[in-house]
Each structure stands twice: as C-alpha cells, then as structure tokens.
Design goal:
The protein has 240 residues and is an all-alpha fold. The protein has helices spanning 2-6, 10-41, 46-55, 60-70, 75-85, 89-94, 97-101, 107-112, 116-123, 134-162, 173-188, 195-211, 217-230, 232-235. Helix content is 72%, strand content 0%.
C-alpha cells in the first residue's frame, strides 16, 4: 500500500478522473439545462439554479422540487417526497463505504456526490491504471460531475430567459445517459458476469409491470440485490 501511494501521479489521477467523467458531462449539460429551464419557467432565476444544484444535487428530486415549489407545497411534503425518490442512493453507498472512508476529509463529499450517474461510473472500473490514486480519482469524479450539473443548470436557466425555444423532451438525456453507461459497463464484463445486467433488466421489467412506472425503482433494487446475493457463489465475490 505504501509503495502504491509513492508511485501515484497527480496528473495521471486528474486525467483518469476527467476521462471517466466525460460521459456524465454531456448528459449533465443537457439534463441540468432541463432543470434550469424548468426552474426559470417557475419564476426562479439562475442564482436559485446554482444554489439548489449546489446544496440539493438530487437529479430527479430537483425536477420534483420545481413542481412542488410551483404549487407552494409545505416543507414536510417536500422533504418526504425527496426522501422517497432518492432512497435508492442508500443502496449505492453500501458498496463504497469502505473505499470512501479512506478518503479522509473527502469522505462526506464522496457520499454526498454519489448520484446515479456517479455511482455508475464508479462501478465501471474495479482497478485503476498504474500511477493513479484510486481514492482521489473517485473523489474527483464526484467533484467533476457536481460541477457539470451546476454548469448545466445555469446554462438552462439563462437559455430559458434568452432563447425562445421549445425545450420539450430535453429531460430524456438522463435516460440516454443511463443506457450508454449501462451498455459500456456490460461490454467490459466477462463470462458469466454479463448475466448480472440481464438480471437487472428482468427485475426492472417485472417490477414495472407489477408496481407501475411511479413505484417500480425501489422494488427493482431490492429484488436485484436479493437475487445477486443468492447467486453470489456463481458470479464471484466481486459482484455483490
């Protein structure tokens, strides 16, 4: 471990983190812009876009927040709805607690910044190239993604004010981003581990049929994790 720290290079770490975060950059510029546009149309300028994206940083939760603000929803309702929508993040953190703890003062931010997309990037690599500090790289990925989201939010807010264009459908960029990351992740897997993605897809379709689109996400995570835990001896210890 001591030798690994001595041979790490700051430029290599920065370059690696930037490269890994690039898919999120393009997704967040569009998705963050969609949020900024919606927020501006609800009567809040780019300063609010910066503040909400900096403090809340909840992706789909921010889109819901715009709707709740527009309807003057009480604070307890906002808090409860945000908790339900982002409860899936609790599952994300479980697989990175030990790694993130090694980050020292970076640990709280690494947990805070573990969004859907950042989590997908983090699980897309099990090892880092020689000369790259893994913990710092994961921290930088979270930091870059957060910056991308803030920039996208500001661009959207300003664009909604300046450019009279119908931005309907821009929020589909989140779905497109997930598809790209998922396909790339599956392509990197070998042998029987490719079946992990298939299990996730089957679980999602099953829960979508049973629980409908509004409620299928959390049951999908629960079923997928349960199945992977049961099949852990088959897939290997690195899967679960």
């Amino acid at each position: 471990m001591r030798e690994r720290k001595m041979t790490t290079n700051k430029k290599d770490t920065l370059r690696f983190a930037l490269h890994k975060s690039l898919p999120v950059l393009f997704g967040y510029l569009f998705l963050g812009s969609a949020f900024g546009i919606m927020l501006y149309n609800a009567g809040y300028n780019f300063i609010w876009a910066i503040f909400i994206s900096l403090i809340v940083y909840a992706g789909s939760g921010q889109f819901l927040l715009v709707s709740l603000l527009s309807n003057a929803a009480p604070l307890p309702t906002v808090a409860l709805m945000t908790l339900f929508i982002n409860s899936r993040h609790m599952f994300y953190g479980l697989s990175f607690v030990e790694k993130f703890k090694k980050g020292g003062w970076r640990y709280p931010f690494m947990i805070f910044s573990l969004t859907d997309e950042t989590y997908s990037v983090n699980i897309s690599f099990a090892e880092v190239p020689k000369g790259v500090d893994e913990i710092k790289a994961r921290y930088l990925i979270g930091l870059f993604d957060h910056i991308y989201w803030i920039i996208g939010s500001v661009i959207g807010s300003l664009a909604g004010q300046i450019i009279p264009i119908d931005f309907t459908g821009i929020d589909f960029s989140m779905t497109a981003l997930f598809v790209v990351i998922f396909i790339d992740l599956i392509r990197e897997q070998k042998g029987r581990r490719k079946l992990v993605g298939l299990i996730g897809i089957i679980s999602a379709v099953f829960c979508l049929i049973i629980f409908k689109a509004e409620n299928f996400l959390l049951p999908t995570f629960i079923i997928t994790i349960a199945v992977l835990c049961a099949l852990k001896p088959y897939f290997g210890k690195e899967v679960v």
